[in-house]
Structures are given as C-alpha cells and as structure tokens.
C-alpha cells in the first residue's frame, strides 16, 4: 500500500522537520497485505512518539522542546519501534505493545527543565558581581565558574549516559561569524578552559558547575543541553528566558581587563553614578552624571566588543553617528531644534533607551561630555573598567604637526583663516583599563578612548585606545591615534608671523599652554582627582621636554624646536575668585613683568572673542591697544574690563570667551603672546529634599532657580531624574522674568535603598549649563513594593 507508506513517512518527516524516521519498506501487494497489522502497529507507535500525538496521549512525557530548536533540528537517531504482538487476541496484542512502549520510554533520557540559577540574590549573580544589573538572564563574567541545575526524565547514570552543553553566539559584523562552544563533562575542573562537572545529584536533578574560558567572546549566548543514552540522542533547546550573558571579568587575574585594587573596581566597574568636569582651568565646574549600567539584550547584540578589549575602538565608532548611525548625533551649532540640548542631559540611560526605542536612530544631541558619559556606561556595563576624563586647555591638532599653531599677520593680528588648530576650554574623553598584548611590555593599564567625532582614524570617526604610558613618554608611534591624544595634552603652542614675502617665521612659543588639570572623579568620593601626572611629566622638567621632542620627530615639523628665544619680559592674565558672572561686566587682571635691569616698552594688542568650548571662535566683541612702559624689574598690573552690553547678545553654549594678547618689546624685539579662556559663571539649581526618604513612600524635593540676566528667559524646561528615585521627567516652566525666582516641587517614590542622587538640569536656549544635585539617603521600606518596582 504505497499510499499508506507515503502517508506515514510524510507525517513523520513533516513533524520532525527532516529527521529520517525508521519506516516499513513495502515491496509488493502481497507483502503489504501480510504486514497490514504491522503497519497499524507502527503507526500507533509513531503516534506515541510524534510531538503532536504524544501531547494528547501522555502528560508525563513531552518531547516537543527536546527535538526542535530555534536554529533548526538536531540530527536525531530514533530507536527502532517496538514490534507489535501478532497473536490472535487483539486486546492482548495491544496490551503487550503498550507495555513495551512504557518500558522504552522509561529508558529514554531527556531534559525536562533547565534552571540557570539567575536570581539577582543567588550565588551566580553575587559571585560574579552582577546582582545589581537589570534583567532576568544569567549575567556572568568570563574565566569564572557558574552553577546550573537540570531536571531530567530519570536519574543520570554517569557510566552509560552522556551529557554536554552547547553555547552559541550570533554573528558580529566585521568581528566574528559567531561562536559555537561545546562544553563536556569532566571529573575535575581546570582553569582557563570550557568544562562542566556534576557537583550534586538528587534523584532526577543534577547540579553542574561550569567553567568559562578567560578569553570567551563577550555577548549573549543561546544555551542548548544535549543528553544521550545508549539507544538515543535528544536535544533540548534553550528557552528565550534562559540566555547566558557573558561579560569581561576584572576580578579574573588572567582576563585582559584584570584590575587589582578592589576599591577601584567598585568605582570604575560597579558605580552607576559619577561626576563630569567642565569649564576652564581657572573655573572648573562639576556635574553629576547617572551612568546607570542597564544591561539590555539589544545592547549586547550590537557587538560593540569582542573577546579582545583593544577593539574598544569600536565603542567610540558605535557611539558617535557620522559613519554608522551610532547612539549620538553631535551638534555644536547652538541650534538644537528637533532634539535635546546637550547641556540638558544628566545621564546615559534615557539616551540609550531612546536609541533602542527609535530603532537605532541616533539620539539628538550630544557634545563631548555626553559622548563620554555614554561610553562610560557601555564599557562599565560590559565589564571594562572605565572613567570619564576632562582635559582643560585641550589642543586640537589638525595637521599632525604635534604643535598648536597660531598665525599672525605683519601687524600681530590673528589670521583667522589659517588658524585651524584650536584649544578647547575643556574636552572630555575616557580612560579604559586593559593589558595591551599588541604593544611592547609596559604599555598596558589606562588607555585613552574618545567617542567625540573630531578627526577620522583609518577613514572613520574614532580615536583610541591609546596607551597613556605611551602618551606620557612621547612614544607616539604606538597605536592607536597616540599622536592626536599627545597633542591634546602636551603640544607646545607655536606663534608664526607672516613675512612680506608671504612666508612665516616662528616668533614665539608657549611650553605650558595645553593639558592642564586633567581631571576625573576620585575613587570612593565625589572629589575631583587630578591625574595630569599620568598623561605628562612635570611641565618643563627634563623628562617632559624629552617626551615633547621625541614626539615632535614623528610630526610634520620635526625641526620646530631649533630656534632659541631670549625672554626678559612676561605677560599673564589673572582672575579673581570664581571669575566673572553671567549678566555682569567681566573683569580680569593683566600682569606684565620686566625681569631685566633695563627699562622696557611695548604695546599690547588685546582682542576678546566669543568662543565655542571647542576653541572655535564665533566673532570678536572687543579690541584694544594697551601701551605699557616698564621700569627695571617692575611688575605692572592692568585692569581689563568687558562690559555686559558688549557680549550679552553674542554668547553661545558654555558662555566662553577668549582673550588674546600680543605685542613686541621695542628694545629687544621679543614677542609677547598669550591666550586666556574664561567663562561666565551661571547659577546652580538649588534642590532641597522634603520628607522622609523611604522605599515605597512618597517624598518631595523643592527645586529653586533665579534668572541672573537682566532680561526674560523664554521656554524654560527642567529635566529631573534620579537612579532609584524616579525616571527622567520633563517639567515645562515657561518664561522666567529678569532676576526672577521660580520654585517647583517634584514628588516621587524611591524604589532603591541606599545613598542616591536627585539630579536636575535646566534647558533654555538663552542660558546653558545650569544644573543641580541633591544627596538623598533612602531607607529600606516595604519589600513587596521593592519587588514590584524592580519588575516594572
């Protein structure tokens, strides 16, 4: 009966998606008739084994999840079906057949369930320092053992049964085609390899201790358990809720991101709140940033990092957007229509969630501190120790000369069209910690990484990782992008004057013009830590000069340091207290010193220009000439004033200005030149918590702001957020009159106990970089509410 054979075979092949079943071959009509009873028995056996049929006939055995996987079908050899009894008594035959089938099923080995022990309060998450991460996946760190439990269909016999685990990752564009790992059972676990060991057995349940390799690829793995008894092999597919997420492990001594100091690991890996620094070297401002290392499956799937953290150049590429629709779109124009002003952000979580919800479209808008804050979040999330770093007076070398060049005309006036190099008031990038096996010994440790799109590297906007040790010693020939970072922190500022024939002559140099007060948040406190000594030797020390001259040999002007300069007159600019305030006249002090025993005369050309914090000038707002006569060894002070009316309608983000002074000493032809950046201080938002801070209990905070300007602010918006306190919320305030004070009360319910921070930022086109923070110590409250809040 070919029809019957086709029906049976087709049914089984369809249900098992291509797995070849054992079938009954029919050669002729006579044989078909003689085997009709066998065919019926075979059909009944397949009905018992078929996933669709067995679900109706038996509630104790279901192989649906043990055959078909998300990736297709594992080749499975099914056992021979029990032979039907051919006696005359049909009832007796059926009973015999059923008895044989039950015996067979009892011998089969399958996996009923897999428990990855992924509870946040369980052993795995605690030992791997991932208990504070969001998500129900098993989140672990490579190079370390983890535990899992299996519920089998019968007790496991280690003498005859076989078991192994399979872990698979998806493909990572430009990095890997995907990883397939087979983990076999062993008697004893060894370090630095994928292995599993049965550590406990109780009836049908076994507990495995699984060891991961210290070079495992970072990302999300799909788990499959394979079991095999002498007569069959059955695969168990992973459940979507049973993914394994693998992170870098700074607690593992053989991991490339290993960090020895425990307090530093707490700060640079686990701390979800930090401080970012901005302003100028004489007016350093600080703002709180919520890193919020929220580990989301889609973030891991993006493939930012592979097994080698040196590829952390990829995050800098993936976080900015010019090349591949990264997380953030940069904007330095001052026009933020269609997005959020960079100064209005106060954390990374809102940005990353918006990026995810909008299908991978860049979030508008970011500037350097925003790029750095998001980078810190991503790298800490993945297990790489990371910190945000601010460099004040940060040079931007555009021609790889490893100098910052300033061009003047014959009359000592700046030639703006040639001055493409710039010095940013401040620039924020990242340090990430790792060994560098791709570089000579000694180059590991902190590596500079910059996600802000400034210049291209190998055709794309990315920068680093560059060894901080190589930067400090001037070894700019080491990868990646070390010359650019060196110039940011330790290039000399060279002044060039145009000659009558159009050529330029070097007339002056400043050896301490860039790379000041390099700052990051201190370990274990909110204080500012100065790490300048990690990036450069003491200014003008022999070691520092050797580093500068070593680096310059690899630049486009290796002979720039061949011209000696005689100096006996100096000029500098000083600032009183915290500096000028927004809405008032700006006052600075110019100090001119004569170090010689002879009189000296000069004329200082002063020019002040409104400047973006990147060092790009918007326009000049005031020019003056200041005649100066000095007696021998005299120190003369000159008060310099910029009226409010001169700058009130000219300011851009950060309210920064640059004062340029230049002149020539009549008696010696010595050139005097200096540039000073300063910003107009803006007010803080004052935040006062009200009521008891208890988990699950509503409390409030009063936020107060006073407009410092003599005119109305339009379209004021407050953005308020706090990790463990409340999600980001925008509060529309509207217009705020001249010198007027506005107060609002924000109500929220804390969801996490411990020290928390409530952060608020003002978003207004006419006034930027206004923010505030309040420390709130939240006490434990209703546990049921805590669990509900975490689930939501």
TrEMBL record:
It is found in: Membrane. The keyword Cell inner membrane does not apply. Pfam families: Transglut_C, Transglut_core, Transglut_N. It is an enzyme of class 2 (transferase). GO terms for biological process: keratinization; nervous system development. InterPro entries: Ig-like_fold (IPR013783), Ig_E-set (IPR014756), Papain-like_cys_pep_sf (IPR038765), Transglutaminase (IPR050779), Transglutaminase-like (IPR002931), Transglutaminase-like_sf (IPR036985), Transglutaminase_animal (IPR023608), Transglutaminase_AS (IPR013808). Keywords: Acyltransferase, Calcium, Keratinization, Lipoprotein, Membrane, Metal-binding, Palmitate, Phosphoprotein, Transferase. Binds 1 Ca(2+) ion per subunit. It is a lipid-anchor. It catalyses: L-glutaminyl-[protein] + L-lysyl-[protein] = [protein]-L-lysyl-N(6)-5-L-glutamyl-[protein] + NH4(+). Its cofactor is Ca(2+). Its EC number is 2.3.2.13. GO terms for molecular function: metal ion binding; protein-glutamine gamma-glutamyltransferase activity. Coiled coil: none annotated. GO terms for cellular component: membrane. The active site is at 368, 427, 450. The keyword Phosphoprotein applies. Ca(2+) binds at residues 490, 492, 539, 544. Residues 360-453 form the Transglutaminase-like domain. Its main location: membrane. Catalyzes the cross-linking of proteins and the conjugation of polyamines to proteins. Responsible for cross-linking epidermal proteins during formation of the stratum corneum. Involved in cell proliferation. PANTHER family: PROTEIN-GLUTAMINE GAMMA-GLUTAMYLTRANSFERASE, PROTEIN-GLUTAMINE GAMMA-GLUTAMYLTRANSFERASE K. Belongs to the transglutaminase superfamily. Transglutaminase family. Interacts with PLAAT4. This is Protein-glutamine gamma-glutamyltransferase K. It comes from Oncorhynchus mykiss (Rainbow trout).
């Amino acid at each position: 009966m070919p029809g019957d054979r086709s029906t049976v075979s087709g049914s089984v092949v369809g249900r098992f998606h291509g797995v070849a079943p054992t079938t009954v071959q029919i050669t002729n009509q006579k044989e078909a008739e003689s085997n009709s009873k066998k065919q019926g028995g075979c059909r009944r056996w397949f009905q018992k084994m078929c996933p669709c049929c067995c679900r109706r006939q038996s509630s104790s055995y279901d192989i649906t999840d043990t055959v078909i996987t998300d990736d297709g079908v594992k080749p499975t050899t099914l056992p021979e079906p029990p032979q039907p009894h051919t006696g005359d008594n049909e009832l007796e035959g059926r009973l015999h057949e059923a008895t044989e089938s039950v015996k067979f099923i009892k011998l089969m080995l399958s996996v009923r369930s897999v428990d990855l022990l992924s509870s946040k309060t369980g052993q795995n998450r605690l030992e791997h320092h991932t208990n504070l991460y969001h998500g129900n996946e098993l989140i672990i760190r490579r190079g370390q053992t983890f535990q899992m439990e299996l519920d089998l269909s019968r007790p496991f016999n280690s003498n005859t049964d076989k078991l192994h685990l399979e872990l698979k990752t998806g493909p990572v564009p430009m990095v890997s085609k995907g990883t397939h790992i087979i983990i076999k059972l062993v008697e004893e676990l060894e370090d630095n390899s994928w292995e599993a060991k049965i550590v406990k057995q109780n009836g049908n349940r076994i507990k495995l201790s699984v060891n991961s390799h210290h070079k495992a690829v970072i990302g999300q793995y799909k788990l499959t358990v394979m079991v095999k008894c002498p007569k069959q092999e059955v695969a168990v597919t992973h459940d979507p809720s049973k993914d394994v997420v693998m992170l870098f492990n700074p607690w593992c001594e053989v991991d490339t991101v290993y960090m020895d100091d425990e307090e530093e690991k707490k700060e640079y890996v686990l701390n979800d709140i930090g401080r970012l620094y901005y302003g100028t070297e004489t007016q350093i401002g600080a703002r709180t940033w919520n890193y919020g290392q929220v580990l989301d499956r889609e973030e891991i799937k993006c493939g930012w990092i592979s097994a080698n953290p040196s590829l952390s150049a990829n995050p800098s590429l993936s976080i900015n957007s010019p090349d591949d629709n990264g997380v953030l779109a940069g904007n330095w124009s001052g026009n933020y229509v269609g997005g959020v002003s960079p100064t209005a952000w106060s954390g990374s979580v809102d940005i990353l969630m918006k990026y995810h919800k909008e299908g991978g479209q860049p979030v508008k808008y970011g500037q350097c501190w925003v790029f750095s804050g998001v980078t810190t979040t991503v790298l800490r999330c993945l297990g790489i120790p990371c910190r945000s770093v601010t460099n004040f007076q940060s040079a931007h070398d555009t021609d790889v000369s490893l100098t910052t060049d300033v061009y003047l005309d014959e009359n000592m006036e700046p030639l703006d069209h040639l001055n493409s190099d710039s010095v940013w008031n401040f620039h924020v990038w990242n340090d990430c910690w790792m060994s560098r096996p791709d570089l000579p010994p000694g180059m590991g440790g902190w590596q500079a990484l910059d996600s802000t799109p400034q210049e291209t590297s190998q055709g794309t906007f990315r920068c680093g990782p560059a060894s901080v040790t190589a930067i400090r010693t001037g070894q700019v020939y080491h990868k990646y992008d070390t010359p650019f970072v060196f110039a940011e922190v330790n290039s000399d500022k060279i002044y060039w004057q145009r000659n009558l024939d159009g050529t330029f002559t070097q007339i002056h140099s400043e050896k301490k013009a860039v790379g000041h007060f390099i700052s990051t948040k201190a370990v274990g406190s909110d204080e500012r830590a100065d790490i300048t000594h990690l990036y450069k030797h003491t200014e003008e020390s022999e070691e520092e000069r050797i580093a500068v001259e070593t680096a310059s040999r690899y630049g486009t002007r290796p002979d720039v340091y061949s011209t000696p300069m005689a100096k006996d007159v100096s000029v500098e600019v000083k600032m009183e207290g915290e500096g000028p305030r927004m809405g008032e006249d700006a006052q600075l002090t110019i100090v001119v010193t004569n170090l010689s025993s002879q009189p000296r005369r000069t004329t200082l050309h002063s020019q002040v220009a409104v400047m973006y914090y990147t060092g790009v000038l918007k326009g000049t707002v005031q020019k003056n000439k200041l005649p100066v006569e000095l007696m021998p060894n005299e120190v003369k002070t000159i008060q310099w004033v910029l009226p409010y009316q001169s700058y009130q309608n000219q300011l851009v983000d950060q309210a920064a200005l640059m004062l340029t002074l230049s002149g020539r000493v009549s008696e010696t032809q010595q050139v005097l030149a200096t540039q000073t950046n300063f910003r107009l201080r803006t007010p803080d938002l004052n935040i006062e918590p009200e009521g008891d801070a208890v988990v699950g209990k509503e409390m409030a905070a009063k936020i107060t702001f006073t407009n410092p300007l003599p005119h109305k602010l339009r379209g004021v918006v407050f953005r308020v957020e706090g990790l463990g306190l409340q999600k980001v919320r925008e509060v529309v305030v509207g217009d705020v009159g001249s010198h007027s004070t506005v107060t609002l009360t924000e109500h929220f319910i804390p969801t996490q106990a411990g020290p928390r921070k409530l952060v608020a930022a003002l978003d207004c086109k006419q006034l930027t970089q206004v923010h505030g923070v309040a420390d709130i110590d939240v006490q434990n409250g209703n546990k049921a509410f805590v669990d509900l809040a975490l689930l939501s």
